[in-house]
Design brief:
Rossmann fold, about 250 residues, 7-stranded mixed beta sheet, alpha/beta, single chain
Length: about 250
Amino acid sequence: MPGNEGDERLRQEFNEWAMAGHGPQMERHHLNIAEQTIRRMALKPGERVLDLGCGTGWASRIVARLVATGPAGFGQVVGLDISDEMIARAREASRDFENLLFVWGSAEKIPWEENYFDKVLSIEAFYYYPDQERVISELFRVMAPRGRLYILINLYRDSPYGVRWAERLKVPVHIRSAQEYEEMLKRHTFEEVETCLIPDETPTPDDYKSELFTAEEMRELRRMGALLISARKPNFRTPPRGMEVY
């Protein structure tokens, strides 16, 4: 069981989200930008993929279909989430998948071996992690040499609408700029670090109602897009925990 105070706060919050049935709502809200990001990942059959902050596993299932059996072998997807209730729902909805595994655990101490994943996807989760630097270190550890990382977030400093939404959350979040995220990944020796905006092509009806946004504000938020941060791990094999590189 994840043990630090920050993890426990997130577990409790997202367990409440799961029990309130927010999983399908999260999928509807993020499906368009997620599909655009997954296309950019250029997934191939046989690849190993980590879905970090997988929630109810809707994106994991999309990815699992794309990396399934092919000439390169049998691809695998691992979904990791801090919420045991989310993981339970992900497992229930994914019983027909033979190449999909869901794990309850902390992003700050990923329960997986070194140099394993060819690709990492994280959708609308990264700003929740209390120690983002530690999470980046863990991702570096579990990624294969030359593996690629894709972090997609709607909450970033350059978006005034996302910042407004953050004020309503019950847990602390990080609000960083695209430049700050680029610098963070470069500090951890990631290569080919890039950021771009992924506009949300989901139509906004004229009768859209929200406590936070008008219909026109929602259209503008979607036009502005989510921030996609991508990077590549160098051609370097991370040593097992407890070993040092000299």
